[in-house]
Fold each of these.
Amino acid sequence: MVGTGYVGLVSGTCFADLGHEVVCVDHDSRKVETLQSGEIPIFEPGLKELVASNVTANRLSFTSELGSAMRGADAVFIAVGTPSRPEDGHADLSFVHAAAKEIATHIKRFTVIVNKSTVPVGTGDIIETIMGDVCDTDLFAVVSNPEFLREGAAIDDFINPDRVVIGYENDKARDLMDAIYRPISENGVPIVFTSRRTSELTKYAANAMLATKITFINEMADLCEAVGANISEVARGIGLDERIGSRFLRAGPGYGGSCFPKDTLAPVKTADDHNTDLSIVKAVVSANDTRKVNMAKKIIKACGGTVDNARIAILGLAFKANTDDMRDAPSLTIIPYLQSKGAIITACDPEAIENAKRDLKNVTYRDDPYLCVEQADAVVILTEWDAFKTLDFKRIASAVNQARLIDLRNLYNKQDITAHGFEYTQIGSKT
């Protein structure tokens, strides 16, 4: 498994737990040393324990030496980052290309090269060309095997997925992938074997669809506020239709994380290159960017139209609960916007504070939500952590300067909060 980021570490560990012998490789020697010592560089529920048990069972190990890791390997997975290029929004494939070239130098016998990184259509062809310039093309076959892991629930998503998608052009590679995933397919999980290019596009199409659902329900929330409807009840009313489904229909401050932002932008750029207009996906990207700014404006409106010199307590920094991932989190837009209007920010998050410190400056960080809200002029719930779902508002009321709650995740019932003397602002409802 080349790459020990989120996808590589979770996938490698889960493959080991299925009974395979897995070596995770990373050029960052400090990260490798951290993993060898039993520490995990990311927060994912259950991952630390699963890594430890498979290391103990001698099924999982970590190294910075790709050559030694590949000795005897039947398959080499590429699981490196493909961030958006800041200059044009295209997926940056430099890490994928570098991995492919290095892998080729160590191939001694037939090996299946499995791309698990999220990449534009045709990347498998490019990998073939890069590797073919270094070694005999009869010694390898390139497969696409995109990941569909939700941060915070990644282990269960890997072991019990809705489906596994495998794109191949070589029958020997198909047979090997079938064997690798047999412990999962034997539990009834569908294995979708398809062409490599179809597999590559399936990943982007899935994330674009989910991002569209989130953006749709957020825009419906705005309409609910304008006309006096309730977005939670609208979401339930449409979600019970099996053609629509209830998942990803919770209104909030906009999507973020490592996948949706870049995986909506990349297919738009690919479509532009092929003279195809993905107008819906373009609208999703634009609406989500606007959404985050509008949530900051919503906070200011709830504070009487100004936050100049106001103390704002932010509960939640990560883009979603059960992760420490700050990539494209709404907090990265909302907090600086509030600061630009004169707000003084105190913030709390169960896991993401250290990561937040890299990007959010002039913020006072607290580990305890009750310390975070002291002397606050407004309390804002930004991430749906369980720790923020059962707060003692009698205690909070005695600690804040002004009793205002802006609930951007709709975690609470208005009557319950106003009973404690709070002004309560939520998403998608006036009542």
Amino acid sequence: MRAVCIEEYGAARDVLLYKNDVPIPAISDDQVLLELHASAINPVDCAARSGYGQKIFATMWGELPLILGRDASGVVAKVGKNVRKFKPGDEVFAAAHIGCNAEYVAVDAAHVALKPRNLSHVEAASLPFVALTTWTALVDNAGLNASNTAGKKIIIPRAAGGVGSFAVQLMKAWGGYVVGLCSERNNELVQSLGADEVIDYTKTDFSTVLKDFDCAFDTVGRSSDFSTPDSHSAIGKSGDNFDEKLMSVLKRDADAVYVTVCSPKMVLADRYGLEAGAVKARQVFAQRQAVQEKLGRRYYWSFCNPSGDALGQISHLLEQEKIKPLVDRVYPLEDLVAAHEYCETKQAQGKIVIEIRKSTKT
């Protein structure tokens, strides 16, 4: 099969290798083999390609060489003997652990859902990883859902990005009051997603004009938690206290919640090793959590939890058009280098999709 591999860590044009002779992966009894029509690029793919988080990722993915990519939309080609929910020919989408920069990928059946009927594979591929990153943070951790979000105030930075744009739409679909932070060029886009307020972070210190929020969804973090400045977005370059600014707008003693997808866990593991890094991460988390507990708030570090059940619920929202995909650019698989380089400019509005097979909306 065709695939793009890495055999070492580094810059996109130095390490991404397009190949035509990669073996099609075998599947276990609980997996399905997907014939991919489209995948997508996430900032974590670019970071992993550069070497970020390699000690933890090695325990999840194995050692080099690797095929990166976590978003999948395609057709079931084969099912393991224990799989009952899917059959060959089903159109599905999923957030795989790895391997989606290829024509075929093996995925746990529990992580797969039927593709929304109103979306093309290109559109569907733009969603699984960012949707489940958001779902894990706001639903599983923060405890927000269709029944309790109405009227709650949520602040979402980087609101024009992949995770941010999905989060804005999800919270609005459930009746939340959403404030999105973005640069001026993205104001109109974030408004079109339904945000009640849009603040240009380059001109306004949001922490001086906002208060009494129920939830802060941090997609930026603090710059000292990352090993290099360019692993951090422009929105956080104004200082090391972006997370503190977000927490400062939350209510006190009212069960408000701060949840971030930007923890120092990966960097600490890379710096100190798996065991020592894990100890340091627990210490840092406990210290930060304790500060917020004294203020009557909840504090979480969140990581994407692949889930076919959650994707099924998200699929219903997509079919009802309460949430719409946001695709910035589409590249063919052989142009993955250009896709990574564009992702690293941090200028994308929504997602960068990789079209692996030409397909039509079904």
Amino acid sequence: MTDLRPVPLFHIAFYQFTRLEDVDAMIDCVRALTAELRGSVLLAPEGINGMVAGTAANLDAFEAALLAMPPFGGMPFKRSECKTVPFSRMKVRRKKEIVPLGITGVDVTAGTGINVSPAEWRELIRQEDVVLLDNRNSFEFRLGRFHNAIDPGVRSFRDFPEYVQAHVVDWKAKGKRVAMYCTGGIRCEKTTAWMREFDIPVYQLEGGILNYFKELPDAERDWEGECFVFDNRIALDTSLQETSTTLEDVYQGEPDGEWRLNRARRLDGDAD
């Protein structure tokens, strides 16, 4: 008897900062590997950043093929099951950076902040000398956040350095340490690499919010609300399950909400 049940779909997110000598050749290769998938993959001289969806078998083959390439050996993948089809098409594109901080010359491969596991993060953010920064956009913060986190009030990742520069002298004078988090970790990698020049202890949540939800079954102890994701699922709870949140819920009241809403509907957003 034929099984007519739909094949389960899964979503994976991944990134790796690594020097790519021939980005165009890598784009051709990744396009071939993603023929049976849907999503978005960005490649730049500084590495790869992607989120794609497909069946478990197709994703297994894709991951194995990428990991077999020397630049991407050891790259972690975050996988979650989908109820909603996350993407309608597949895009593989070349960019100047896989995540644009707005500051030139930041070399993540030269070093970043201190990576903290989810279990260690839980203890770190309870320390009185720690400034807990949400390294995401304000609309993401509003939807969900760690308890006692600070919203830098930015509309774009490129605005984040300005907030840091305005406060870092005061943090250092008060003997503070900085802990920051983002959805999957990539924004924090770029930011902490740049912040090394300020000579202040900076920590980043390993694997970001999604890894925290995956590793800690009681993540709701430290998290309030939901986590925005850049695909058709829109938001996940601490069990990595889709919620009923709509795009209108996310962007309503934002100064550039209408633009973001139209952009999201076209799925032109890039991976975190």
